Amino acid sequence: MPEAYIVDAVRTPVGKRGGSLAAMHSADLGAHSIAALVRRTGVDPGAVDDVIMGCCDTIGPQAGDVARTAWLVAGLPDHVPGVTIDRQCGSSQQAVHFAAQGVMSGTQDLVVAGGLQNMSAIPISAAMLVADRYGFTTPFAESPGWRARYGDVEVSQFNSAEMIAEKWAISRERMEEFALASHTRARAAIAEGRFEREIEPVTLPDGTVFSTDECPRETSLEKMAALEPLAPGGRITAAVASQICDASSAMLIASERALQDHGLTPRARIHHLSVRGDDPVWMLTGPIRATQHALEKTGLSVDDIDLFECNEAFASVVLAWSDELHVPLDHVNVNGGGIALGHPIGATGTRIMATLLNELERTGGRYGLQTMCEGGGQANVTIIERL
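The structure assignment produced for this chain is given below.
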């Protein structure tokens, strides 16, 4: 089977909610990373077969196939198509999978994969609010088929995070220690310049150059302990959840033929890609089953993986995954995760993969495994091999 290679990966700095990127149109946000990717790689944009971008809540400025719009806003050729996909939090990781599958099938040679999300402009609950206007509490709540299968239960990521903390006996204190470590690692990574290669600074309308992730905080266990839980008597607080934010990210996926034809040097190879589903009411347990499946398919063990990225939607998700699979936390999210760096939903998958790629190169590791929980009880797994 033909191989799929990562040529380069780029992202915007992550802007906090209401921060530096809040007023940026979603298409322009996506265009920024796409244009930077084309410029950095030197690839002929006319040779790109497709542009696949993840985005959730595709209403307002994110509607109308924003992947296609972002490519055009970047000033790139009209004949190159684009498609927007929604696998919830894993949307841009799935974009990489579709891009790699196109290359591995032999039907495509160069594909841009990425994602974008302006959560300041379009809140995560925006689609839910539209549904509620027409009498639906969630997009699927009134489906007779759904109710017949799962009953009249509230499906919520917050409920799932609480359920996971209870089932795996993860205390609030342990989650807060994990969250503090995320902020500490992220701030250290910024101070050491670990993100500089992957970030393409954004020049704002007032001429300010925005180049550093805004979400990491100086915090403490004492500050976290003072927060009220999201549910009465619960363990989950805002401190142990990912931050709402704005960003875009993009990668160039290429075939071996494209590498030769365009004089491109690959940075990594896609070693494995898969996606699995789990109980949609539990929702956030998907990474456990998906990682088990990926390791079984590849014959690799946890010990064979040098670095892991498991998206920090909530601390309980990563800790339960780590406990179940015996993944050492000192190899997980070593530069911080969504709790500190933010989770710009549609852009997160390729944001994380850019960070994973750069960290493998920095440390000399061979394999990196990435997974993330997704709406509907799903999870993608990608294993990349540094070249």
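Interim note for the steering committee: The chain has a mean pLDDT of 95. The longest strand covers residues 245-254.
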